[in-house]
Amino acid sequence: MIPELYSIFCDTYKTMNRTFDVPLDMITADSELEDLGIDDSSFDVILMNIESRMNVTLPVDEDYKFRNIGDVITMIKSSNN
């Protein structure tokens, strides 16, 4: 479980870094998306890149608001079960 979780963290961080130049040292599970300069449209692009890179389909509900990176990680973990 630990290697899988580590892989999810690394892939998520790399995707955010490559897509929007978010410095890796600014990305933690508690990082607020707004603080990283990620708006709703940017976030949609990040989610599509994560789905493509990790070969998952994220069950994103329109009413659910991701607040931080931890929310994204939790969503990815739930899609891998």
Q: What report would you give on this structure?
A:
This protein is an all-alpha fold and 81 residues long. It is 56% helix and 0% strand. It is built from 3 helices and no strands. It has helices at 2-20, 40-54, 69-79. α1 crosses α2 (40-54) and α1 (2-20) crosses α3. The model has no long low-confidence stretch (mean pLDDT 79).
Q: How would you summarize the topology of this molecule?
A:
Blueprint: H1 2-20, H2 40-54, H3 69-79
The averaged pLDDT comes out at 79
| Bulk shape | globular
**What portion of residues is helical?**
55-70%
Helical/strand content category: mainly alpha
Helix/strand order: HHH
- Counting DSSP E segments of at least 2 residues, the number of strands comes to 0
Q: Largest sheet, described in full? A: none
Annotation field: number of helices: 3
Strand content: under 5%
Low-confidence stretches: none
Radius of gyration: 12 Å
Distance between the termini: 11 Å
Summarize the structure.
The chain is mainly alpha-helical and 81 residues long.
